[in-house]
Amino acid sequence: MLNLFIIGNLLHGSYIQGLKLVLNEIFLYLKLHRIEAKIQPNNLKSINLVKANKFAREGYSKNYLQVDRVWRDHERWALTYEHWIKSSLLQHSGLDPMVALAFFNRFFVKRFIFRVES
């Protein structure tokens, strides 16, 4: 499981580009087949972020996760390797790899909390 907690505003597509970098790592280097996102329905910024990166809405989970001592519903979004390749995120990301890596290290490492469970 990979949890991303977005802090701050989505400015000038920077989070969209940052997630593209994360997806490159996930699919090309970690060789994962699928990534999922569970998002509260009222969190429009995160929903727009996954939509912009071609995630597909797969369902709705009632009382999925307890947040602030209240059980919250979540939408389920997912992206598979095959769909990612077809959507041409890698070929048409428009990112210079060195500039993107520097940007990612400066702005995203402090804003994302990663938790990987096996």
TL;DR of this structure?
This protein is an alpha+beta fold and 118 residues long.
According to CATH, the fold-level topology is Aminopeptidase
Largest sheet: 3 strands, antiparallel
Overall number of structural domains:
1
Percent helix: 25-40%
Question: Which CATH class?
Answer: Alpha Beta
What's the SSE pattern? HEHEEHH
**Distance N to C terminus:** 7 Å
Mean pLDDT, rounded to whole units? 75
Rg, rounded, reads 14 Å
The CATH homologous superfamily: Gcn5-related N-acetyltransferase (GNAT)
The percent range for strand residues is: 15-25%
Shape: globular
Give the structural class: alpha+beta
Order of strands across the main sheet: 1-3-2
Per DSSP, the total helix count is: 4
CATH architecture: 3-Layer(aba) Sandwich
Tally of strands? 3
Unreliable runs? 107-118
Topology of this structure?
Layout: H1 14-29, E1 34-39, H2 44-52, E2 56-67, E3 70-80, H3 81-86, H4 97-107
